[in-house]
# Entry
Amino acid sequence: MKLALVGATGLVGGEMISVLEEGKYLPLTSVSEFIPVASEKSVGKEVSFNNRKYKVLSIAEAINRKPDLALFSAGASVSREFAPRFEAIGCFVIDNSSAWRMEPHIPLVVPEVNAHVLTGSQRIISNPNCSTIQLVAVLAPLHRRFGIRRVVVSTYQSVTGTGAKGLLQLGNERQGIKGSMVYPHPIDLNVLPHGGTFLPDGDTTEEKKLLDETRKIMQAPDIRLTATVVRVPVYGGHSEAVNIEFEHPFGLDEVNKIISTAKGVVLQDDTDRAVYPMPLYAKGRDEVFVGRVRRDASIDNGLNLWVVSDNLRKGAATNAVQIAALLFSNEILTA
# Structure
């Protein structure tokens, strides 16, 4: 298949190239032609893929190449404008932006949770928000067994979630360099309870995404969820403190078994040896790590979890490539 990568020079685009090159999910031999795409200022630059150099093309040039699959990581406005143009030439689009996630007819997919929605009837497919992906990977198998009534989430999100500009601000501050700021305040030695933009009710857009996307992916419109999104001076990944109220009683042994056998999830929970998930060690990994599993004695059927994952890998690039692999293995792409 011909594969276009829109946003190839960005932080997530670079991670997508790495995941593709590893060939863990989608065989490298399945890519007959690689088409890197970026903004006009990057056209003509070179990117490497599978030990070859490729010149970056414009979106118009990429459409003329008639790719079979396009991975989009270039922002919501670009996706809104150009994803339908790729769709119109028969191309499948896996979009990493927020542009299409809550459109009722667009599949919003975490392969370990709802792969069944990939039927091929819709050529634009949405990749969820990074924080949502790691959350539902853990919530979904627990919900199937015990039923989830309510979830309270506090996130501790890496500056990598803001892209290269977030990395630059933190790096500059740590070196004492005065530079451009993507955040409204310093991030080094600080935490910001501010993810996305503030809405009239006081929540942020990032907090609203967690609620809306979780309900859609899990097909559980009645789950109540509230979130506080916090940006922290960390590179490796996003962390989440998750409090769950179940509908039915549970045993911790069964909870641990469900978590440890869930696809793509790793249980790291041995507090006697100070073993628990940390973003420092999740960096570069594709799994979702869970620890600090314990009862919440303040409510009936309450459970606390600590969930960590590399937001550039499973939270973005890996999940998108896994979706592509499903389309390819199910022969949807070649149908």
About this structure: Residues 2-128+316-329 form a domain with the Rossmann fold fold (CATH 3.40.50.720). The chain is about 30% helix and 25% strand. The mean pLDDT is 96.
